[in-house]
Design goal:
The protein has 108 residues and is an all-beta fold. It is 0% helix and 54% strand. It has one domain: Jelly Rolls (Sandwich), CATH 2.60.120.10.
Amino acid sequence: MAAPQLPPAEALALHALVTPTEHGIASRILAKASGGNLTLFAFDAGQGLTEHTSPFDALVLVLEGALTLTIGGAAVQATPGTVVRMPADVPHAVDAPAAARMLLVMLK
């Protein structure tokens, strides 16, 4: 299967690229390459990702709402316009107390 691609030379509204799911989490891979990928997430209020690890560094860019990121046991409050680095191999989790959207950049 070919990697998903966004159309070239076109300005796209991020909020229109993923449809929120009531009582759930929606995601869309916007770009995927050997060096990493870019994924857009939409969380409904009260949703999140349970604690896990990744072998890659990740950057969370909050677009809307607010997220609580727990990284290595430390809680970080992230709001629109902020970026948080999650180091490779460190346990982390994501909680959305209210509806939120984020971009996740995975770097290999």
